[in-house]
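mind reviewing both lines:
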Amino acid sequence: MRSSASRPQPTGLRPATGGIPFLRLCAVELRKQLDTRAGVWLLVAIALVNCGFIALTLFTADAAALTWTSLSQSASLGQLLLLPLIGVMAATSEWSARTALTTFTLEPRRTRVNLAKLASAGALGLIVMAVAFAVRAVLNLVGIVWQGGDGSWALDWGIVAGSGLALVLLVWQGVAFGLAFLSTPVAIVAYLALPTVWTVLTLTIESLRGPAEWLDVNQTLNVLMMGAMTADDWPRLTVSLVVWLAVPLAFGLWRTARREP
Protein backbone atom coordinates (compact mmCIF):
# COMPACT_ATOMS: atom_id res chain seq x y z
CA MET A 1 0.00 0.00 0.00
CA ARG A 2 1.53 3.33 -1.09
CA SER A 3 1.78 6.07 1.47
CA SER A 4 -0.08 9.35 0.88
CA ALA A 5 3.26 11.11 0.44
CA SER A 6 4.08 8.97 -2.62
CA ARG A 7 0.73 9.39 -4.30
CA PRO A 8 0.71 11.72 -7.32
CA GLN A 9 -0.94 15.03 -6.55
CA PRO A 10 -3.62 16.47 -8.85
CA THR A 11 -2.17 18.92 -11.31
CA GLY A 12 -4.23 21.82 -10.02
CA LEU A 13 -2.85 21.41 -6.48
CA ARG A 14 0.79 20.96 -7.39
CA PRO A 15 2.80 23.82 -5.89
CA ALA A 16 4.47 26.19 -8.33
CA THR A 17 8.26 26.04 -8.31
CA GLY A 18 9.20 28.92 -10.59
CA GLY A 19 7.09 31.66 -9.00
CA ILE A 20 5.15 34.36 -10.77
CA PRO A 21 7.20 36.18 -13.44
CA PHE A 22 8.26 39.63 -12.29
CA LEU A 23 6.78 41.39 -15.33
CA ARG A 24 3.43 39.75 -14.62
CA LEU A 25 3.63 40.98 -11.03
CA CYS A 26 4.33 44.49 -12.33
CA ALA A 27 1.34 44.28 -14.69
CA VAL A 28 -0.93 43.14 -11.85
CA GLU A 29 0.29 45.92 -9.56
CA LEU A 30 -0.21 48.49 -12.32
CA ARG A 31 -3.77 47.26 -12.84
CA LYS A 32 -4.42 47.55 -9.10
CA GLN A 33 -3.40 51.20 -9.21
CA LEU A 34 -5.85 51.89 -12.04
CA ASP A 35 -8.75 49.65 -10.95
CA THR A 36 -9.68 51.47 -7.75
CA ARG A 37 -11.99 54.47 -7.66
CA ALA A 38 -9.44 56.39 -5.61
CA GLY A 39 -6.74 55.79 -8.23
CA VAL A 40 -9.00 56.78 -11.11
CA TRP A 41 -10.22 59.94 -9.40
CA LEU A 42 -6.68 60.88 -8.49
CA LEU A 43 -5.67 60.65 -12.15
CA VAL A 44 -8.74 62.74 -13.04
CA ALA A 45 -7.68 65.32 -10.45
CA ILE A 46 -4.18 65.43 -11.93
CA ALA A 47 -5.64 65.99 -15.40
CA LEU A 48 -7.92 68.78 -14.14
CA VAL A 49 -5.11 70.53 -12.26
CA ASN A 50 -2.83 70.31 -15.29
CA CYS A 51 -5.54 71.68 -17.57
CA GLY A 52 -6.23 74.50 -15.11
CA PHE A 53 -2.59 75.61 -15.06
CA ILE A 54 -2.36 75.36 -18.85
CA ALA A 55 -5.54 77.42 -19.27
CA LEU A 56 -4.16 80.01 -16.86
CA THR A 57 -0.98 80.22 -18.94
CA LEU A 58 -2.91 80.49 -22.22
CA PHE A 59 -5.09 83.33 -20.91
CA THR A 60 -2.54 85.33 -18.95
CA ALA A 61 0.92 84.82 -20.47
CA ASP A 62 2.34 87.02 -23.20
CA ALA A 63 2.24 85.60 -26.73
CA ALA A 64 6.03 85.30 -26.76
CA ALA A 65 5.88 83.07 -23.67
CA LEU A 66 3.42 80.57 -25.15
CA THR A 67 5.73 77.72 -26.09
CA TRP A 68 5.72 73.96 -25.62
CA THR A 69 8.31 74.35 -22.86
CA SER A 70 6.36 77.00 -20.93
CA LEU A 71 3.12 75.01 -21.14
CA SER A 72 4.93 71.88 -19.96
CA GLN A 73 6.47 73.66 -16.99
CA SER A 74 3.20 75.31 -15.97
CA ALA A 75 1.34 72.00 -15.98
CA SER A 76 3.93 69.88 -14.19
CA LEU A 77 2.89 70.92 -10.67
CA GLY A 78 -0.24 68.75 -10.63
CA GLN A 79 1.50 65.50 -11.44
CA LEU A 80 4.51 66.24 -9.23
CA LEU A 81 2.23 66.95 -6.26
CA LEU A 82 -0.53 64.36 -6.72
CA LEU A 83 0.91 61.42 -8.66
CA PRO A 84 3.10 60.22 -5.72
CA LEU A 85 -0.14 59.67 -3.79
CA ILE A 86 -0.87 56.79 -6.17
CA GLY A 87 2.43 55.32 -5.01
CA VAL A 88 1.23 55.66 -1.41
CA MET A 89 -2.03 53.88 -2.19
CA ALA A 90 -0.22 51.17 -4.18
CA ALA A 91 1.72 50.31 -1.02
CA THR A 92 -1.12 50.58 1.48
CA SER A 93 -3.94 49.01 -0.56
CA GLU A 94 -2.95 45.45 0.36
CA TRP A 95 -3.52 46.21 4.03
CA SER A 96 -6.41 48.70 3.86
CA ALA A 97 -8.42 46.53 1.43
CA ARG A 98 -7.34 43.33 3.23
CA THR A 99 -6.01 41.69 0.07
CA ALA A 100 -2.58 40.99 1.56
CA LEU A 101 -3.49 37.41 2.44
CA THR A 102 -4.45 36.63 -1.16
CA THR A 103 -1.49 38.47 -2.68
CA PHE A 104 1.12 36.93 -0.41
CA THR A 105 -0.40 33.47 -0.74
CA LEU A 106 -0.02 33.65 -4.53
CA GLU A 107 3.46 35.19 -4.21
CA PRO A 108 4.97 34.54 -0.75
CA ARG A 109 8.10 36.58 -1.52
CA ARG A 110 6.81 39.88 -0.18
CA THR A 111 9.85 41.95 -1.07
CA ARG A 112 9.43 40.86 -4.69
CA VAL A 113 5.82 42.07 -4.62
CA ASN A 114 6.91 45.40 -3.15
CA LEU A 115 9.59 45.81 -5.82
CA ALA A 116 6.88 45.22 -8.42
CA LYS A 117 4.88 48.02 -6.78
CA LEU A 118 7.89 50.32 -7.13
CA ALA A 119 8.44 49.40 -10.77
CA SER A 120 4.78 49.72 -11.76
CA ALA A 121 4.30 53.02 -9.91
CA GLY A 122 7.39 54.47 -11.61
CA ALA A 123 6.18 53.25 -15.00
CA LEU A 124 2.76 54.83 -14.40
CA GLY A 125 4.46 58.13 -13.60
CA LEU A 126 6.38 58.08 -16.88
CA ILE A 127 3.23 57.13 -18.83
CA VAL A 128 1.31 60.04 -17.30
CA MET A 129 4.21 62.37 -18.10
CA ALA A 130 4.33 61.20 -21.74
CA VAL A 131 0.57 61.64 -22.17
CA ALA A 132 0.79 65.09 -20.59
CA PHE A 133 3.52 66.12 -23.04
CA ALA A 134 1.33 65.01 -25.96
CA VAL A 135 -1.65 67.00 -24.63
CA ARG A 136 0.53 70.07 -24.15
CA ALA A 137 1.70 69.76 -27.74
CA VAL A 138 -1.93 69.96 -28.90
CA LEU A 139 -2.54 72.95 -26.63
CA ASN A 140 0.59 74.61 -27.99
CA LEU A 141 -1.13 74.54 -31.37
CA VAL A 142 -4.19 76.08 -29.72
CA GLY A 143 -1.97 78.83 -28.35
CA ILE A 144 -0.55 79.51 -31.84
CA VAL A 145 -3.96 79.69 -33.54
CA TRP A 146 -6.04 81.28 -30.78
CA GLN A 147 -3.61 83.56 -28.94
CA GLY A 148 -1.00 84.14 -31.62
CA GLY A 149 1.61 82.53 -29.40
CA ASP A 150 5.25 81.97 -30.21
CA GLY A 151 4.57 78.23 -30.52
CA SER A 152 8.21 77.19 -30.29
CA TRP A 153 8.68 73.42 -30.25
CA ALA A 154 12.16 73.59 -28.75
CA LEU A 155 12.56 71.64 -25.52
CA ASP A 156 15.32 71.76 -22.95
CA TRP A 157 15.99 68.04 -22.70
CA GLY A 158 17.91 68.55 -19.47
CA ILE A 159 14.70 69.86 -17.91
CA VAL A 160 12.65 67.05 -19.46
CA ALA A 161 15.01 64.33 -18.21
CA GLY A 162 15.35 65.95 -14.79
CA SER A 163 11.59 66.33 -14.41
CA GLY A 164 11.02 62.71 -15.43
CA LEU A 165 13.60 61.41 -12.97
CA ALA A 166 12.25 63.65 -10.21
CA LEU A 167 8.72 62.39 -10.86
CA VAL A 168 9.80 58.75 -10.60
CA LEU A 169 11.75 59.46 -7.41
CA LEU A 170 8.76 61.24 -5.85
CA VAL A 171 6.46 58.33 -6.75
CA TRP A 172 8.96 55.92 -5.20
CA GLN A 173 9.04 58.13 -2.11
CA GLY A 174 5.27 57.79 -1.94
CA VAL A 175 5.57 53.99 -2.12
CA ALA A 176 8.26 54.08 0.57
CA PHE A 177 6.08 56.12 2.95
CA GLY A 178 3.13 53.84 2.22
CA LEU A 179 5.15 50.72 3.09
CA ALA A 180 6.55 52.38 6.20
CA PHE A 181 3.16 53.43 7.65
CA LEU A 182 0.77 50.87 6.00
CA SER A 183 -2.12 53.31 6.47
CA THR A 184 -3.29 55.46 3.57
CA PRO A 185 -4.29 58.63 5.50
CA VAL A 186 -1.26 58.50 7.81
CA ALA A 187 1.16 57.86 4.95
CA ILE A 188 -0.31 60.67 2.81
CA VAL A 189 -0.13 63.17 5.68
CA ALA A 190 3.45 62.10 6.47
CA TYR A 191 4.51 62.27 2.82
CA LEU A 192 3.07 65.77 2.38
CA ALA A 193 3.83 67.24 5.80
CA LEU A 194 7.25 65.99 6.92
CA PRO A 195 9.37 67.28 3.98
CA THR A 196 7.35 70.53 3.97
CA VAL A 197 7.87 71.10 7.69
CA TRP A 198 11.59 70.48 7.27
CA THR A 199 11.73 72.96 4.37
CA VAL A 200 9.92 75.62 6.44
CA LEU A 201 12.31 75.07 9.34
CA THR A 202 15.33 75.49 7.09
CA LEU A 203 13.92 78.76 5.77
CA THR A 204 13.25 80.17 9.23
CA ILE A 205 16.26 78.84 11.20
CA GLU A 206 19.51 80.09 9.76
CA SER A 207 21.65 77.37 11.36
CA LEU A 208 19.74 74.72 9.38
CA ARG A 209 20.39 76.22 5.97
CA GLY A 210 23.77 74.53 5.59
CA PRO A 211 22.48 71.02 6.41
CA ALA A 212 19.42 71.72 4.24
CA GLU A 213 21.62 71.70 1.14
CA TRP A 214 22.15 68.00 1.84
CA LEU A 215 18.96 67.00 3.67
CA ASP A 216 16.15 69.01 2.04
CA VAL A 217 14.78 66.76 -0.70
CA ASN A 218 12.56 69.54 -2.06
CA GLN A 219 15.61 71.70 -2.59
CA THR A 220 17.76 69.02 -4.22
CA LEU A 221 14.94 67.80 -6.47
CA ASN A 222 14.21 71.37 -7.55
CA VAL A 223 17.74 71.68 -8.92
CA LEU A 224 17.24 68.36 -10.74
CA MET A 225 13.96 69.52 -12.30
CA MET A 226 15.58 72.74 -13.52
CA GLY A 227 18.15 70.68 -15.42
CA ALA A 228 20.92 72.54 -13.60
CA MET A 229 22.69 69.65 -11.89
CA THR A 230 26.44 70.01 -11.40
CA ALA A 231 29.08 67.65 -10.02
CA ASP A 232 28.48 69.11 -6.53
CA ASP A 233 24.70 68.66 -6.72
CA TRP A 234 24.63 64.89 -7.30
CA PRO A 235 26.08 64.00 -3.84
CA ARG A 236 23.56 66.35 -2.20
CA LEU A 237 20.71 64.71 -4.11
CA THR A 238 21.97 61.26 -3.12
CA VAL A 239 22.16 62.11 0.59
CA SER A 240 18.68 63.64 0.62
CA LEU A 241 17.26 60.58 -1.15
CA VAL A 242 18.90 58.27 1.38
CA VAL A 243 17.10 60.15 4.17
CA TRP A 244 13.70 60.62 2.53
CA LEU A 245 13.50 57.58 0.22
CA ALA A 246 15.96 54.81 1.10
CA VAL A 247 15.44 54.84 4.89
CA PRO A 248 11.60 54.69 4.85
CA LEU A 249 11.73 52.16 2.00
CA ALA A 250 14.13 49.88 3.89
CA PHE A 251 11.97 50.15 7.02
CA GLY A 252 8.82 49.47 5.00
CA LEU A 253 10.31 46.38 3.32
CA TRP A 254 11.43 45.09 6.71
CA ARG A 255 8.03 45.79 8.28
CA THR A 256 5.92 44.22 5.53
CA ALA A 257 8.15 41.14 5.47
CA ARG A 258 7.27 40.45 9.12
CA ARG A 259 3.71 41.70 9.49
CA GLU A 260 0.85 39.23 9.59
CA PRO A 261 -1.50 39.60 6.56
Observations:
- The chain has one domain: 21-258.
- Confidence is low (pLDDT under 50) at residues 1-17.
